[in-house]
Amino acid sequence: MFKTTLENLVEHLQEDMCISEDSIVWLHSGVLGLGMIKEGVETITEAFSQVLPKGALVIPSFTYSWCNSEVFDPLISECPDMGAYGKVAWKDKRFKRNSNPNFSISVMDQTSDKRVEKALTLDQTKWTCFGDGSVFDQMYHLSQDMPGKIVLLGGAHNDVVFRSTFLHYVEEKMAVPYRYRKAFKSPQNSKEAVVQLVRFMTNNEYNNENGKSDLNYSFPIKERYLKLGEDLIKDKIILQSPFGYSMTKAVSIVTLCDWLENKLKKEPGYLLK
Questions:
Q1: Residue 213: pLDDT above 70?
Q2: Fewer CB near the last or first residue (10 Å), C or N of the chain?
């Protein structure tokens, strides 16, 4: 059985995936592809801590709390859907979690000026999941000045070549016709709400939102990402390297977002292919 150790994971991230010490990394993680993790899932955090001595690691700690009319507390709300690593890593004292009640993130900031933690945990990140001022918007702009990467490790999202929550940020920016912005209210205060880009689940839902029916899509809407993967490889945007039982994948945040924006300008339904 393949064994993941701190040493071979650090070497893989630095040498194979070309992650520099000052990068900001958005990580989607799996563990099945890592085989036996010698020191447990905490090895992943420690590896990135060593790889990013002047950078930051950002992980999803999504709870979808207000979607389900549940109270959210960044200090105690569990995120059981985030996998074996994500559901426990946010509790590490090296991470700080923001207050978005549906799509919270946790950041381990090792940059000297602390601007990453400040940008990603501002109160404004609480009120929008993917729009202006959201965590994804903040990371995109931070990545203009420091190397920003989306990394898929350990078999994360291995049903396709590539997918990431980050794609919804570009979809909202481009106002794709198969999603719409929906407000989810706090179960404790009806005056507070977070705005999230959601899929149209039925034709009636689309008609009610737009007052017309002109989509040639099947409902419920579901992005397939098949053409996306093919084109990322063809255009040499994605870096792939084997580790354990899966391929680790990395893309530049700015390159991906700008590239996808152009794709959606030409073909709004591109991600449905």
A1: no
A2: N
